[in-house]
Amino acid sequence: MSGTLVSTNNDTIRGNLRNLRIQTKGVQMAALESPSRISVDDYLAFEQTSKIRHDLVDGCLYAMTGASDRHEELTANLLAILHSHLKGSGCRVYGSNLKIRIGDDFLYPDLFVRCATERGDPFFKTDPTLVVEVLSPSTQEYDRGDKRLAYQSLATLQEYVLVAQDTPAVEIHRRSRRMGARDLPGAK
Prior knowledge:
It is a single chain. Strand 11 and strand 12 form a beta hairpin. The protein has helices at 10-16, 40-49, 69-86, 140-144, 146-152, and strands spanning 20-24, 28-32, 54-57, 60-63, 92-94, 99-102, 105-107, 111-114, 124-125, 128-134, 159-163, 170-174, 182-183. The protein folds into two domains: 10-63, no CATH class; 69-183, Alpha-Beta Complex (tt1808, chain A). By secondary structure, it is of the alpha+beta class. The strands form three sheets. Strands 5-8-10-11-12-13 form a six-stranded mixed beta sheet, sandwiched between helices. The chain has a four-stranded antiparallel beta sheet with strand order 1-2-4-3, covered by helices on one side. It has a three-stranded mixed beta sheet with strand order 7-6-9, with helices on one face.
């Protein structure tokens, strides 16, 4: 689906999302789970009118919560640095309001870089070369585990960077074996 959204009845979707519960896959995230999982087309239509953002994982919606001021400062600074660094390169940096599609799942990273000549879908991208997550106490296990595994399944991803917000620490996972970073599968 490239830029075209099917019409759907958002009241029906919202009605099916009444069961609010906390998922405990090693992370505390609010999950709105419908009795029957939500389709990709319904998710994309729903996200267009929703007042809050949601990740879609295995057909379940996960509400994205707000961030701390430190988290936002780090994200904004990293976005500005990357934007300046990438000028003239053909690559673009995107912030946390644009999602990445991985199969039928959609995730909102804190920021990512994409190096492609065509713009692709205006509401999600499928080919990031760099993904950066600023760690939060409630999501760091998920960011290091399931989320990393999802991102590394993307053939275009070269680096996955985790930035601590409470200590001066950065973890870099790379496809290539340079600078002692942890390798992503497929490293050469």
